[in-house]
Amino acid sequence: MKKTIILGVCGGVAAYKAVELARILIKNNFIVRVVMTKAAMKFITPLTFQAVTNNPVLTDQEFWNNQSGNGMDHINLSRDADLILIAPASANFIAKLNSGICDDLLTNICAARSCDLIVCPAMNSFMYHNPPNLKNIDSLKNNGVFFIGPELGIQACGENGMGRLSEPISIFNEIEKYFSQPLLKNLKILISAGATIEKIDDARAITNFSSGKMGVSIANEAFQLGADVTLVKGITHQGINPGIRIIEARNHDDMETVIYQEAKKNNIFISVAAISDYKAKQIFHGKIKKDKKLLTLELEKTNDILKNTKKKFPNLFCVGFAAESNDLIHYAKQKLIEKNLDMVIANELNNTMDHDDAEVIILDKSQEKILPRMPKIKLANNILLEIQESYQKNEN
Ligand SMILES: Cc1cc2nc3c(=O)[nH]c(=O)nc-3n(C[C@H](O)[C@H](O)[C@H](O)COP(=O)(O)O)c2cc1C
């Protein structure tokens, strides 16, 4: 079946490159529906795109004067699309996208979409590095929007820097990859992420510094790679792809209940959450008075959820994370054997927790492998490739 791509074109010098992109997509059997912003039409005419795509081009003119059907092209078009691709995306459009502004056809289509959105920025390098622009891009990425480029190089304005539109052929290669058979298709993956919080009394609690960045990155990436993902979500403020099933579990006991309940429905369990090892032996109802100079809290050890999950469900491929402050490999090996895990991902506590990037060592029964420091989003992809490979070996 042919895939339909909405190609959104914004106002920038690189708009002419979108014609070549449309041509490559058509040549490779995609249906392309071009939507142009008002500014885009200052750079290139709709007729060129119409000729290349063999489809009428939609602009604001059609948005407000639509004579056909229910007159709601912004909804109809996005319902029919398999992907929305914005190339080139202006700084202005990226800002509107991030703040939810819907003041023309293209912004409305993006807001009403039920498919993925890929944005290819193109702008002067100073405009690109403008802090609000970088913030917008970051925030969109956290909300599941994909980006291709921009690239470094000589720009139309004469600058040499970051902001060039990726070459049409490179954009096409990424689109082809996007539509190819996903690596984790048919796999059900259970992932826990974030910190837990254990009550001491009605006002106070014990928690930890886990941000959930690693766990949520793995969940988002697993979903992108085609897995059916259930996320057991502790405390985290990271953006989660809307296609992921989320079950909230804020403390150890809730995590334990949910994980045992969900484990049997999955092929793989990746335990990334920083689950409290201790909890208050008794939760004080009300608020403990601050009248003592020294207050002793009695804490009891919590159950080892990961170890027990593997014991209860021996066929489940279980992956644990080990954040250690010393003797990393020694403790990771110990964890692998003691808990009978299929894989352990070890990282150095102080260089990982709440950081945007990390270096990890992957251990399974047959190997030890270092993945050098890289952003957690990229690391998530690399980790999942290792898990998939090891899982397949186990299955065969
Ligand atoms: C000659 C010229 C070139 C421009 N090139 C770019 C560009 O490459 N990238 C960009 O973000 N804005 C560029 N702009 C500014 C945008 O066209 C402007 O922000 C416009 O409002 C974008 O509208 P749109 O986002 O609806 O397409 C350019 C403007 C002019 C006059």
What would you note in describing this structure?
- The protein has 396 residues and is an alpha/beta fold.
- It has helices spanning 17-27, 40-43, 46-53, 60-64, 73-80, 91-99, 105-111, 125-129, 131-142, 168-179, 213-224, 252-263, 305-312, 328-338, 376-395, and strands at residues 4-9, 31-36, 83-89, 116-121, 146-147, 151-154, 160-164, 188-193, 198-199, 205-206, 228-233, 245-248, 268-271, 278-280, 299-301, 317-324, 343-348, 357-364, 368-375.
- The protein contains 15 helices and 19 strands.
- Helix 1 runs parallel beside helix 10 (168-179) and helix 5 (73-80) packs across helix 7 (105-111).
- The radius of gyration is 25 Å and the shape is elongated.
- The chain has 2 domains: 4-179, Flavin prenyltransferase-like (Rossmann fold); 188-395, Rossmann fold, CATH 3.40.50.10300.
- The strands form 5 sheets. The protein has an 8-stranded mixed beta sheet, with helices on both faces.
- Strand 18 (357-364) and strand 19 form a beta hairpin.
- The chain binds flavin mononucleotide (FMN).
- Flavin mononucleotide binds next to helix 6.
